[in-house]
Design a protein that fits this description.
alpha/beta; FAD/NAD(P)-binding domain; 5-stranded parallel beta sheet; 13 helices; 16 strands
Length: about 475
């Protein structure tokens, strides 16, 4: 999908003149590091705060998952320019990397190129205008920002910044099992919580083989992270007899949950849906539809049970994997004046473009500083976190966001308003790739599960990153 305009927000808000102090970037994931590279090209000095002990720490935590996107779609142009001068060898453009490869072969070299601008094991606990809480109007716009941080040894300090770019992602805030947005009854009770996971199983790791092998696991969710988990468990069933998966869907039928198949312009993502459908057809995955979870119960003989709002039960479970999406945590910005949509918790200018009630299979235009602006000038939330609770996101989208934001902070509003992005057309919405399975079989495309996507294959749309990198987002279980 190629766009030559930003729609519908044309005005690019932000700093009215170039910032004259360091720009604080929260998160050293794909979008956060891209932001730092873009800022450097605009002659602005970034300082990056990462709560993990290395760049791409969140990406590495789902390192076993293969992305939908090729390397050519996962490298920010400014980052490429920065790395090219340091003898970096760019990976094969047509290869689909795993999360671990993305972190090791791109994110860590990029962080090394940024040098001591990146601070690890440094958690941002709050951002405010210097000497002004959220209520105070007087002199507000003339004050720099104070970024409150906590270091690994427990010390706290604050850093002055001319602007703030929050690319901290949503990875550490998975949605709960409960269908009303709150945890299901019992979900956080210790005996049950120990057997509930919110991550795609790694069936190449001995720990997860022992946890899920030969056992019955409920996978709750309709997105591609859920499909990835089902394919993983089906693969494990071939090695560990007795391994069973139960796919729990809130929707009344599987319908478009298998995705776009051969019509998907991201082939690896289409292949995933085909593999999942084959696993269902082979009897390796049981499907339960129209199930909205009310409670998780610990049954006397040691198994778990899911209970729906209507009283239906799924008994005999050993494990539960909840893959129902993620949500942002804006608490570190509590003393700033953010303009957030009441439903999505995304910036108000962006929300209408990504609302899943309207755009689950529609067009999401490239967007930048104008759509991401808040009443508090000089503050931007970017990456997966910018999408709030909406499940449509591409790494390329995040890179375009920070290109525009960096231009706005430098005072180049013409460049900030310009679109420099071409997106793929696709027949599916969702994100998280196959593991290492190049061969894909196809079940008969008859009936309810027929391939064809959630809408006409030619409709351009974006894919979600089912998880953010904790530092920005991209495309793997995070999407694409």
């Amino acid at each position: 999908m190629t766009s030559t305009h930003r729609a519908p927000t044309e005005a690019v808000a932000g700093a009215s003149s170039p910032v004259d102090a360091a720009v604080a970037v929260i998160g050293a994931g794909p979008v956060g590091l891209a932001a730092a590279a873009r800022l450097l090209e605009q002659a602005l000095e970034p300082v990056v705060f990462e709560r993990g002990d290395r760049a791409g720490a969140a990406v590495a935590s789902w390192g076993h998952v293969r992305l939908f996107s090729r390397w050519s779609e996962l490298i920010d142009p400014a980052a490429r320019r920065l790395l090219s001068g340091r003898g970096w060898v760019e990976p094969d453009a047509d290869h689909y990397p795993t999360g671990a490869e993305w972190a090791d072969e791109y994110l860590r070299p990029l962080a090394e190129a940024l040098g001591d601008r990146v601070h690890y094991e440094t958690t941002v606990t709050g951002v405010a205008r210097k000497g002004r809480d959220r209520v105070v109007d007087s002199g507000r716009e003339g004050q720099p920002f104070t970024v409150h941080v906590r270091h690994a040894d427990g010390r706290t300090s604050r850093v002055t910044a001319g602007a703030v770019v929050d690319a901290s992602g949503t990875w550490t805030h998975p949605n709960p099992l409960g269908s009303d947005g709150y945890p299901a009854d019992g979900e956080h009770e210790p005996a049950i919580a120990a057997r509930v996971s919110y991550r795609v199983p790694d069936v190449s790791a001995a720990r997860d083989v022992a946890r899920f092998g030969g056992r019955r696991t409920a996978v709750v969710g309709a997105g591609h992270s859920a499909l990835t988990a089902l394919v993983a468990l089906a693969t494990l069933a071939e090695q560990e007899p007795g391994t069973k998966a139960v796919w729990v869907l809130r929707r009344g039928a599987v319908g478009s949950a298998y995705g776009g198949g051969d019509a998907d312009q991201l082939p690896a993502r289409g292949a995933l849906g085909l593999r999942a459908r084959d696993a269902v057809a082979a009897g390796l995955v049981e499907v339960v539809t129209g199930f909205r979870t009310l409670a998780v119960e610990h049954v006397a003989e040691g198994s778990l049970a899911l209970v729906s709002e209507e009283g239906r039960r799924i008994d005999g479970l050993d494990e539960v994997v909840g893959l129902t999406g993620f949500r942002p945590d804006h608490s570190i910005m509590a003393e700033l004046r953010l303009r957030l949509d009441a439903r999505l918790e995304a910036p108000l200018g962006l929300a209408p473009l990504i609302d899943p009630n309207v755009h689950s299979c529609g067009t999401v235009y490239p967007h930048g500083a104008g759509e991401l602006a808040h009443d508090e000038q000089g503050v931007y939330v970017v990456g997966m976190k910018a999408y709030g609770r909406a499940p449509t996101f591409l790494a390329l989208t995040g890179y375009e966001q920070v290109r525009s934001v960096a231009a706005a902070l430098a005072g180049d509003h013409e460049a900030a308003a310009r679109v420099e992005l071409t997106l793929p057309e696709t027949g599916v919405c969702g994100g998280a790739g196959l593991f290492d399975e190049p061969a894909v079989t196809r079940a008969d495309a008859d009936g309810e599960g027929a391939v064809g996507g959630c809408c006409a294959p030619a409709v351009p749309q974006l894919v979600r990153i089912g998880a953010s990198t904790g530092s920005g987002g991209a495309c793997g279980p995070v999407g694409c």
